[in-house]
Amino acid sequence: MQFASVVRRLVAAGALAALASAPASAQTTFDYFTTGQFTSATASCNSAAAAASVTCAWPSSSGLTLTFNGNTDGVFGYQSGTYITLGTFSPGGTGSTMSIPSDAMFRLIINQIDPTTGSASVVGSVGGQLAQGSGGAFSSLYWLPSTNSVTIGSVTYQLQGNQGEPLDSLAIGALYNTSINGQAWIAGSTVPEPSSLALLATGMLGLVPMVRRRR
Q1: For 35-88, how does the pLDDT look when each residue is reduced to its tens digit (9 = 90+)?
Q2: pLDDT tens for residues 2-14?
Q3: Which own/partner contact pairs does 119-126 have at CB distance under 8 Å and 24+ positions apart?
Q4: By the 8 A CB rule, do 121 and 76 touch?
Q5: So where are the chain's domains?
Q6: To bridge 178 with a disulfide, which of 55, 89, 148, 189 should be the other Cys (CB 3.0-4.6 Å)?
């Protein structure tokens, strides 16, 4: 009987301590939208500033253009850990290869609406060079991000490849759309809620009669 009483007291004290130390509510969702920006001394762009949709054309025999369309639709209420699309590159014109100057750059801009402070969005970005590659007839352009992750407040966005690996380079097709994909996590979102901790404590207390019977 004395042993069971000690177990009951320890379990109750542990549950109370866990409830006291756990946050009352850890946010598990985030809201965002993305914009983009091309830069090049020899490029013809429809906007020098970041925009939800930007198009650039570089001198080439095929007259190809490249458009970035940001993710602006249905970007609310994403759960921490979810896979997301951060925007899409779409080629235009004719031909199957792209030819660009060496100073061509692209910047992906993430505008986080929630969680944030105040009413405006908080911005993070990933810049990188647009480089000529040797991918053959179907892809001869690559975006080389300077980093594959960016943290805005409590949310970390990671750019990922097709297999979920961190993105070091993105092959942009000249004949099809190419998406920038990733995953995002909210810091501390995996902390158990007080109700879950209380349920665990209740289950542990239920073990006390079993201990008593065994003794």
Answers
A1: 999 988 776 775 567 899 998 876 665 667 889 999 998 778 999 999 999 999
A2: 545 544 554 444 5
A3: 121/32, 121/33, 122/152, 122/153, 123/152, 124/150, 124/151, 124/152, 124/157, 125/150, 126/150, 126/159
A4: no
A5: 2-25+192-214, 29-186
A6: 89
